[in-house]
Amino acid sequence: MRPPQSHDVQKGVSYELTPQECRLRDITYAGTICVDIEYVRGKSIVSKRNIEIGRMPIMLKSSRCVLTNKSPSDNVRIGECPLDPGMLTLASHFRWLFHHSWS
């Protein structure tokens, strides 16, 4: 799986998306699922590598997330909340939201 990316058409470059940018643009923070395939056509074996077959949402602070192993100051620098524990489970996220909404 490739990390979440976007493409800047004017500059002609691809760059890694952050969860905050996805929130602001109202898009899903998702990576691209790629596979290698082999199939038989007639009597020959055909191999294709790195074929995109879909996208999958990325859990915050998982191994595919740009926030992995970042310090709180790094998170602030890229516009993320330094207190966000990541989304380990939906229940833990709701507990975090509830706790921080009352503090």
Shape descriptor: elongated
- Output the strand order for the largest sheet: 1-2
The helix-strand sequence is EEHEEHH
Question: How many strand units?
Answer: 4
Count of separate DSSP helical elements: 3
How many structural domains can be distinguished in the coordinates?
1
Structure description:
There is one protein chain. Helix content is 24%, strand content 33%. The protein contains three helices and four strands, in the order ββαββαα. Strands 1-2 form a two-stranded antiparallel sheet. A two-stranded antiparallel sheet has the order 3-4. Strand 3 (30-41) and strand 4 form a beta hairpin. It is elongated and about 60 Å long. The protein starts with a strand and ends with a helix. The model has no long low-confidence stretch (mean pLDDT 84).
Which secondary structure elements does this structure contain, and how are they paired or packed?
Layout: E1 5-8, E2 13-16, H1 19-25, E3 30-41, E4 44-57, H2 72-77, H3 90-101
Antiparallel strand pairs: 1-2, 3-4
Entry summary:
By secondary structure, the chain is α+β, with helices and mostly antiparallel strands. It has helices at residues 19-25, 72-77, 90-101, and strands at residues 5-8, 13-16, 30-41, 44-57. The protein is built from three helices and four strands; from the N terminus they run E-E-H-E-E-H-H.
Q: Which key terms come to mind for this protein?
A:
single chain, 103 residues, alpha+beta, two-stranded antiparallel ribbon, two-stranded antiparallel sheet, 3 helices, 4 strands, elongated
